[in-house]
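Continuing the batch. This is chain 6 of the set; chains 1 through 5 are on the previous pages. Same settings as before, nothing changed between runs. Recording input and output for traceability.
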Amino acid sequence: MKQATIIYSTKGIIMNSYQDNQDLQPDMDQQDQPVESQAAESNNDVTMCLAELSLWKDQCKRISADFENFKKRTEKEQARWAEMAKESMLLELVSFVDTFEMALSAQSGDKVGVEMVYQALMKLLAKHDVVAMTPTADFDPDFHEAIMQVPSENHASGQIVQVLSKGFMLKDRVLRPAKVSVAV
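Output for chain 6:
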């Protein structure tokens, strides 16, 4: 009959081997051993069992901690993907703002309906933390996209001459940079 022997260390199971044992009956010599020797051997067995229990508890704690870290990482990833999807959708909505502003600036008749749609769109964007950038005089590549350079006597080189298309912020990030013309 075979009996499994497992050797343990602080890093877990090192080896799992099988040894042939003809009889699992105790040897006659073992029966003749004094009671103290058998008690010491029993204590040794208890110590080995306690060491094995400690190893299993440690491994269980590590696996539990790894799983908690996995859950946290997954939640962060899901939030990041949701934010990216929201950003993509809002970027498309922002282009409608330009169209409405051009329609409002046209010299045609009644603009009441267009104005109402424009206000509703701006409220929708604000609800999702999208706000128009406030125009500045100096060009900043983090917030502006230079579409063209124009000569200007009224502006210093590097200053914004005209905002061609508004920029928008999503919370504290640039959703779309403002498209501007810059003085040469």
